[in-house]
Each structure stands twice: as structure tokens, then as C-alpha cells.
What does this fold into?
Amino acid sequence: MRAIILAAGRGMRLQQAEDQHTPKCLLSFDGVSLLERHLRILRKAGVDEVVLALGFRHDLVEAELDRLAWQPRPQIVLNPGYELGSVLTVHTVGEALTRGGDVLLMDADVLYHEGIMSALVAGPKPVNRILIDRNFEPGEEPVKVCVSDGVPVEFRKKLAPDLKYDTIGESVGFFRFDSAGARRLATLVAGYVNSGRSNLPHEEAIRDMLLERSQIIEVTDVSGLAWIEIDFPNDITRAARDVLPRVAPL
It folds into this structure.
């Protein structure tokens, strides 16, 4: 199983001072960077093959890897067009998506309980899996997953008012794909880039795969496990105050 961590973006919404502006995966909580947490949790889950999709200040991320002396060292793939949408970053790691085996696709800017990773990797058989948390704040910021009879029927921030579903949750931003699902996602992402839609988020391509029903996608509920995606300055405060105490020490 291979983990691809998306860490290329600039994170403008954090409003960091110019001289303190670093990739979000280097945000530190209790003296441990998000990147180090990812690597430790992945190793504990049995995942040692890691691909880092980098862009903005990739030198700082590589310096963190040097400091950690992490082995085996993650493969680094650079997206020079990181200012565009994350769909381009996923396209940049297309080879890692399609070289075979199950793939974990993960946002780098998440502080989370290791039980979320356990839920993602659970089971001996290849699978496509999306994680949801039913306990989320309303509004247009959360990426929502709507489910009907166990089947995901929508995956977006803004929902059609007439959409029918029996379960709704926020996407954690972590996905698992079997080899066929990963290849299909790579094809869809390439279509976005080749048609001039590199400015879009990669979630749009995942949504296309979900709605076309070409792959069976499991929905796994991780409600009750602590996590937070860090996008805004207040998220850093909430992460340290509310989430970190509920996350097992590494």
C-alpha cells in the first residue's frame, strides 16, 4: 500500500506573515510537525511507501525530512504549477497513482487521531474507500459526502436543494483506492488538466468517479474520532486546544 500526501499548496488562507510562511505540513503541535505525524501514523498502520507531492517552499519540507532522517525516505514529486488547483498536483503524481497496488490519497494539512488511519487501511482486500464524519459544522466550507442506501451520491461543498440521501458527513480528506480506482482517478485528473481545468480542486475528479459509478466506493464512518483540517488561522488554535488533547501521543 502506498500513501500519496498532497502538500504542494501555499495555504494563503492561513494569512501567515511573509517571513513565516511555510507549507502547512510543517505546522507543529506539541513539538511534532504534521508531516512527522503523518509518517509515524502511516508506519504504525503498516505503510512505509510514501510519496510527497510538493510545490511551495519544498526546500523546507525536504529539510524537515533531513532533520527526521526518515527511512525509507519518501519519494518527492514536485509540482511547479502549485499555484493552480490541487487537481494539477494529483496529475503530477500520476505515476505513483498508477504503478499498481492500493493507494492512499491524503491532504497534508490534517491533524487527526490514528484511529482514522486504521479505518482507512482496514481489511485485507483491495478497496475504494471514502471517510466521513457525521459531526460537522453546517455551512459551505465542509466538503460533504451524501450517502443513500450505503452508496455515495454526492461529494461537494454546496448541495442541490432537491438531493435525496439518508446520511451526510464531512469528508476527512483521506481516500483509499484499489489499483483500478487509482488508474481511473488518474485518467479523470488528466482529462481536467488537458482540457484547461488545472485550477480546480482534485475533489472534483473524485466526485466524477463517484457519480459515474465505474468503481464501487465504500463509505466508512469515523464520527467521534478527533481531527481537523487546517485552513484558517482559527483552525490552528482549535487544533491545539480541542483536537490535540484527544489525539493519542506519538
Notes: The mean pLDDT is 94. Residues 179-194 form the longest helix (16 residues).
